[in-house]
Amino acid sequence: MDKKRIIIKIGSSSLTSLHGELSRRKIEKLVDEVVRLKDDGHEVLLVSSGAVAAGYRKLGFISRPDTLPEKQAAASIGQGLLIETYSDLFISHGYVGSQILITRDDFSDENRYNNARSTLTVLLERGIIPIVNENDTITMDFLKFGDNDTLSAKVAGLVNADQLIILSDIDGLYDDDPRKNENAQLLDQVHEITPEIEAVAGDPGSAVGTGGMKSKIDAFKISLASGISSFLGKASTPNIVYDAVNHEATGTYFDPKEENENLNQKRQWIAFNSGPEGEITINDLTGASIQEDNKSLAPLDVHSVTGRFDKGAVVRIKNISGEDIGLGVMNYSSNELKRLINQKEIKLQDFQEAAVESEDLVCHLDVAVPVGV
Description:
Layout: E1 5-10, H1 24-39, E2 43-48, H2 51-55, H3 68-92, E3 97-102, H4 104-108, H5 110-125, E4 129-134, H6 148-158, E5 163-168, E6 189-190, H7 195-199, H8 213-225, E7 229-234, H9 240-245, E8 252-254, H10 265-272, E9 278-282, H11 284-293, E10 302-306, E11 314-319, E12 324-329, H12 334-342, E13 361-363
Enzyme class: transferase
EC number: 2.7.2.11
Binding site for substrate: 49, 136, 148
């Protein structure tokens, strides 16, 4: 069996009891399956929800709180309970778990992004099981990843994983909503996210968790663009993780097409994590050219500049018609580009470097997910 680097994401509803409290029995099932993979020599990283669900009753609430401060207070209690349970169970099997709390800012800053990758790589190579969650206690809603489905796909790309497994309270992706259509068919294999698939993926999350099918589809868009095979299945199914790794589980497998060009680490960061600082407009013909021919963007192709940014910033690129072209790392500041646009006599020797190099440009044609999210 080939040794793999595997990311497993599990949602809150799959870790808690009917009363909303942390279920040790459910966590034990997951840990046993992870241990089986570890015993086979695989590297495993967990992205685990459950902090708010585990903590809100200890805070005195009888149901999941609604306000941000209450959720964050619950998370501050629940995260400790969650990691303590995981740690005790892994240690009983001879393995060590580590806690990694991440915010969106950690991914949007390229230096912190690279540092996170280095830390996680050391842990995985040393046989440790990183247990990742968003730092719910301090993260503001507008700075959140949104859900751990998205986080797990971004972490999978961050550490160059071989497989992403998302476990939930559903047993895969259907061609229609099975709650409304008893003839809905489970899709065994998906190679691309089509408009038809997106149309049936708009359901909300469970009462316990935050992610629904739409968030999972968004996550699989990221994993497919990153060249990572993925799987969606039901957490309560016996041996679901082990069977998914061996392509024997019941669920949906998301496998990239072999002919697709996968985004490298740099372009993954630009596409999914950077957070654009400004915007430039180019003419429609140039937009078509850089998308279809993978060309660099010349300074003279910049028609207008919006916002203020320094050299090295990531900016959003649009055409004059207002269509999004993609994102790119700028070799000029906004002031330099504005000076080029406004000056009557252009000294070409001052603008010999490309505005955006082709390897630092990610277009919408490169990925099936909106860039810059």
